[in-house]
Amino acid sequence: MSIKTNFETLTFEVENNIGVITVNRPESLNALSEQVHTELNVLLKDIMKNNADYSVAKGLILTGAGDKAFIAGADIKGMTTMSAADAEKFARLGQENTLLFESLNVPVIACVNGYALGGGCEMAMACDFIFASKTAVFGQPEVKLGLLPGFGGSQRLSKLVGRNRAKEIIYSGRNVKIDEAKEIGLVVTVFENKEELLTGAKTYLTRMMANSPLAIYESKRVMNEGNDLTVKDGLDVEARAFGNIFNSQDMKEGTKAFVEKRAPNFLGK
Ligand code: DAK
Questions:
Q1: Which residues contact 174 (CB under 8 A, 6 or more apart)?
Q2: Residue 142 is among the residues annotated as catalytic for this protein
Q3: May I ask the CATH architecture of the domain 213-260?
Q4: CB atoms < 10 A from the CB of 210, how many?
Q5: If you measure from the C-alpha of residue 117 to the centroid of ligand 1, how many angstroms do you get, rounded to a whole number?
Q6: Annotated catalytic residue: which of 96, 142, 180, 260?
Q7: Which of 48, 64, 91, 250 is the most buried (most CB within 10 A)?
Q8: CATH (residue range 10-208)
């Protein structure tokens, strides 16, 4: 694997084809400084470049170091000295990272333990879905700081939980605890504690790996693309992808294995 893994604010470890990205600033509750976004940008682009054949990972996890937080937001201290030009650069970098998570060819699960506030909630929502422990607390408290969500929260929260609920959460800046987060569909699965959360996400990804990585990626691509389209245009994207996948080895292998009553051996191409 020829990808950079030695960062100051992140760790990246791969085991059994599952890559775990950990934001590693526990002393600041993993707040997103410019350095975190810069390093994340390098890592995500590296994964994109090297993972076309799924040799780096077939699934990814995004999480935060320590017991208290996933990510407690953008680094508020860093923002106090930012010029407007710095802020724009910071916003573009953060937004690009959320788009990179959505473009990666493998599923990305946000594993949220503790606070996922502001930019932290936004990074979690850019992943394919969110697993959380019972201590997870979500929120978009930007209005309390005279800001508004700047890494896509104003768009993605509405799509996940509905526009009215999203407005209510953003205007109030209030915390959303785990029971509510599960009830409104922000969180898919809840685990007892951080250890069970990470083990559970890895078990989930391992089971998923029996399926065709290419078919999973195409499903992800079509669903993300369709998010910005009318149903009619989205159906067109789906039909084209459905036709294209008939050229893949995985489709031939999957259907053949079914007929031959055996487990398929997918290659991701
Ligand atoms: N930034 C920097 N440091 C933070 C931080 C943050 N977001 N959150 C916590 N910390 C630091 C604390 O300052 C403290 O450090 P020391 O003061 O001890 O050096 C350490 O982490 C431990 O935090 P606390 O002592 O406060 O711990 P508590 O358990 O008492 O409280 C808390 C935990 C999460 C309730 C509290 O820390 C808190 O309210 N944190 C801030 C949460 C927040 O408001 N997050 C949203 C940030 S706004 C942009 C794009 C996006 C954004 C901005 C701009 N562009 C377009 C330019 C996004 C904005 C946000 O995310």
A1: 139, 141
A2: yes
A3: Orthogonal Bundle (1.10)
A4: 10
A5: 8
A6: 142
A7: 64
A8: 3.90.226.10
